[in-house]
Amino acid sequence: MADRIYTYNEKLLCVEREIKMRERVYKRRVTMGTMSKHQAEFEINLMKAIAEDIRPCAEEERLI
């Protein structure tokens, strides 16, 4: 468990960094044959869905 409470904005920035990393790494893994294109797309799209879930909270948090 984390020792501090993270803001929604911090969480969103982290998820956005994770998406960029996955796009780079998974593209390479698909090319190397160690990951299917379908699995890579699923994992990246799932993380994008998480970002979209967090985004409204981060925007509301900025208004406070």
Structural account:
The chain has one domain. Helices cover about 80% and strands about 0% of the residues. The chain has helices spanning about 10-30, 35-64. The chain is elongated. The mean pLDDT is about 95.
Question: How are the SSEs ordered, and which strands pair?
Answer:
Layout: H1 8-32, H2 37-63
Helix pairs in contact: 1-2
Could you list some keywords that capture this structure?
0% strand; mainly alpha; 81% helix; elongated; 64 residues
Using the CA coordinates, give the radius of gyration: 14 Å
Q: Shape from CA axes?
A: elongated
Number of strands: 0
* Mean pLDDT across all amino acids: 95
Give a brief description.
The chain is mainly α.
